[in-house]
Amino acid sequence: MKVIKVDQIKKESQVRPLFAGSVSQQTIVDTGLSSRFSIRQVNFDKGARNKFHAHSIEQVLIVTEGKGIVATDKEEIVVMPGDIVFIPANEKHWHGATKDSTFSHLYVMAPEQKTTQLED
Q: In the predicted model, is pLDDT for residue 30 greater than 90?
């Protein structure tokens, strides 16, 4: 057994084309602990988000802080701490903070997943 304290894990800045605005990430569980899934916390500053993308497998988001938006081509849903979002494989979507709040979520996925960015 291992107890992991998220607030003690270093935040790594995410400067990648997938993100718009200031975003950091904390690796909670990686292939060093599990070969079946990875868990990371993603932290968005106010108004920051990722761009439309899709994953080759299902993704689960667990909202931990702030107020965020999870969106597809058809809808945008405001999410808050305690909300859990299931995103099917290959669904075009984005997620990020509202303009007036920071936002953090854990994501759970298998490590072999592929992400395809669908927005410039």
A: no
The upper half-sphere exposure of residue 118, i.e. CA atoms within 13 Å in the direction of its Cβ, equals 15
CA 27/CA 11 separation, integer angstroms: 8
- The CATH class given to the 10-113 domain equals mainly beta
User: Residue 90: which region, alpha, beta or left (left: phi > 0; alpha: psi -120 to 50)?
Assistant: left
3-state percent helix, strand, coil for the chain, nearest multiple of 5: 0, 50, 50
How do the domains of the chain map onto residue ranges? Answer: 10-113
Spacing of C-alpha 51 from chain mean position:
11
CB-CB contact of 60 with 69 (8 Å): no
State residue 115's pLDDT score. Answer: 95
Question: In angstroms, what CA-CA distances link 21 with 9, 36, 97?
Answer: 21, 31, 10
- Answering whether pTM is above 0.70, one says yes
